[in-house]
Structure formats: structure tokens, C-alpha cells
Design brief:
By secondary structure, this protein is an alpha+beta fold. It contains 5 helices and 6 strands. The protein has helices at about 10-25, 65-75, 95-110, 110-120, 130-135, and strands at about 30-35, 40-50, 55-60, 75-80, 85-95, 140-145. It has a 6-stranded antiparallel beta barrel. Strand 2 (about 40-50) and strand 3 form a beta hairpin. The longest helix is centred in the N-terminal third of the chain and has 17 residues, at about 10-25. The chain is globular and about 40 Å long.
Amino acid sequence: MKTTGLPPNKLMARLYRSGLGLLAGRTILLLTTTGRKSGLPRVTPLQYENVNGEIVVACGFGRQSDWVRNLQKDPHARVQIRMRKFRVVAELITDAGPICDFIMLRLKRHPLMVGAILHSKGLPFKPARSDLLAYSQGLAMAVLHRE
């Protein structure tokens, strides 16, 4: 099978922009931040949830992820969900409690997908809150407020 040779994030962004965002847009958005060193736009596909009318994204790779560090320097960003594009200001959250609550919400809404992700990180498919609190240490999430 032939592959595109693109990194997964660039491949997802290309597929999204080619019109497949209509399908992926139920769970994936494109977040465009400003590179903290380069000043250039950086596009990252992220899973998201609508929580009480706010868009929330979390970082499963920790606070050192590029998009998190970019938002630390400049919280202004752009979001694309399906064909809608809008500007946001990110509120970064690093406290394990709210991150744990967010993961529990995601697990409730998407038990198979999120359970498999957590299982790949060494957690049980149905982790206890104490497991998720320990896992949430060192992670980050962002509430994306529309400008």
C-alpha cells in the first residue's frame, strides 16, 4: 500500500481541508497557533469536545507539546470545525482535577475510542478516578473561547 509520506498531522490537515473535515469534524478540529519561535502559523488536528457551549481540547502528550507551548506564548489562535472558521483565545489548564474530569467526560461520550487510547497508555479500559488523576499529572487542556 502506498503512503503519502506526510506526517500524521499534516496528512489529517490536508484531508480535512479537502472536504473530509465534514466527516472528521464531529470529533476533530484544526487548531492554528502561532509558532513561538518562528512566528509562522502551525496547524494541529486535535480531538475536541463541546462542554457547556465551550470548545475544549486536551493534550495527551504532555505540556511540552508544541501547540501547548505555542499557546503559552500567544493564546490567540484560529479554529476550523468542519467548514466553520473562527478566532479563539485559549485558556490553558494544567491542574490535574479539571483534566481528569474532562477525560472522564470523554470516556463517557466515547467509551471505545477513549478507552482504547487510555489502555494504550497502560490504564484499564474502565479506569478509576484515582487512575485518571494520576494519569492527568503533567497533561494540559485548553478551553477555546471565541473572540
